[in-house]
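Hi R.,

Here's the chain you asked about this morning:
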Amino acid sequence: MIRAPLSTTAVLDEAADLVRATAARWAGVLILTALPYAFLQAIFLDRLFELGSKATEYGNLLRSDAYLTLIAFLLALWGRAVYARACRLAATRGDTVGREALRVPGAALASYIYLASFAAFLFWISFFTFFGPILAVMLAGMAIGTMEQNESPSLAGPFRILGRYGRVIRIQTAITLVFFVAFAVALVNVIAAFEAGFWLVSSIGGWDIPRWTVLLSTSNRRYVLMLLSGAVLAIQPFWIAANVMLVRKAGVQETGDDLRVWFEELQRTP
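And the predicted structure, written out as tokens:
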């Protein structure tokens, strides 16, 4: 599926093809495994904001929420790993992907969980800075893109693999900025979808409209957090596919296999 030299537009264009090739089955797996984490994370953050300085007095409540969120986080990472493998197989074969996408190597999954956890920690610890969250998102993207290159568990190995792709930092930065814009667009669409749904059900009898007006309002912090999570879910298949394609194209170019891959794709073309 590599049809053009390594560039931002080429990566995004071919990533869109990957999403179309994997959407029927594996994008659904990705979304279903990510939904519990998105929901529980929104609830956990809402309770933190609500408790504020009194959060230390509710340790048991927050700890139980944190454990559930952690389990959902691991499930979401497994779903991302499966989807990334499906994207990589689709890019390699140029064809649909079967159940082999579920067979994520254990070492690759462990390394990805390690890097993704580090990226999540970096994101939240630097949330109120400008460059910290961007760097964390870029790190998480490269972690999913290079996942299957980790053949054995290691603390330093995954970072060494990431270092091999330092020369594509400019392209990855551009792709990340594109997805920040895509997130804003997705957020507008998610809000519009909720508003349209509310408008439709408001015409049906039996609904407590005043109550739902309060719940589905921007003054409701939990509702806002759910909207943000929904926007992230909407762009996630494209974000993973773009990072998988970026690593694949960069690796092909680095090893000089681009002509061989191009010739093989010509042979597959009817």
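Residues 8-104+167-268 form one domain.

Let me know if you need anything else.
M.
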